[in-house]
Amino acid sequence: MTSLDLVAATRLLQHWGPTRPGTDLPAYRCVPVSGQALQPTERMWDVPPSLAEVAQCGGFPETSTEDGPSGHRYPVAVETVNHAIVVPERLGHSWTSARPAEEVAEEIERLLTGALAPGLDARVLDEQARELITVLAAELAGGHWDLVRVGVAAQPGGAPLDDELHLLVRSHLGDTLRLSIAAAPSAASLGGSHAGADQRAELAVRAECAAELLGKFVWLNNNARMQVEVQIAPHGLELDPADPDNTVHAWWRKSDHWARLVDDEWWEEDEPLRRLDEKTLAEFLAAFEEHNVSMARSGAWARGEVDDYDIDGDPQPRFPGDRLVALLGRDVFDTTAAQVAGAPGDGQPAVYGIGLPFEISDEDYGFYGCVLLVGPERTGIITIDAMA
Asked: From which domain of life does this come (predicted)?
């Protein structure tokens, strides 16, 4: 697998999962909590860790800090799903897990799917949620020897809650990650303006996490990954909806964003800001997706997940997460556009490109690119560092 950012993946799962009826707000909270436990060499989990151990390294009871004390959860049961074992070797011993990673991944996938679609067919989840669950489950199973499922109660020693999922994994270094899935507050508890602010905040986190994960998949070489950043900010401009170009060009040349990119030697100062019409934008997004999938496939080959292949062959071999790479790229753009869009009827944000569309020859080491989306009040800036 790639070096998946488990925290970003867990947070994105919340935003790609089901939404509350009548809103675009997540129906579930997916909470990642990092911690530290003893290493397997010091304390094996073939016998489940105690409630006290789980509470400490799993960050209980502060399960959902947004809800304050009402979001507290207290461990009342611990079930071992997988654990590290010692494998004797001729010159000593090594460590592995008691169950095959593929088998554990299938179980994690069932648990995550069941938590987000309780009692329902997994197909009720969007494709992007299903693809993310598959990759997340494989990463959790393949990168951790130890996995326990924690039963919790709302009060110390209380009755176990059966409608929440709490998984705790431990690496060979003792690093832990607790992944909790529980129902989010109902829409009735949110006021109108508060709900609107929450929706913008949710979109911001979604774009940030999608950009982070996309970069981790795209291998530029053995040591470098693509970096994608998203920034959203009010622009304070008086725009002519029919012809915003002059105003946007003048603002961009004076912006801190432009100065930073020039200082970082992304471009010369005379690099033009180009308006992308619908056709050109579609061509760029298609080329960007093709680039990302191709580079991610090369990374999968380097990890031994696909055999040797002809880079000019058709069709290209599949690899774990290939569909997710395409979905992540689309979501970065779509979510950024949704953040800067105005009220219904205002039309789509104006889109500009710097260094785009891009072309990469055999002599190039990649490309730099920047997408600028300008709405009535806010600007979205997507910067792409794909230069090895």
From this structure: Bacteria
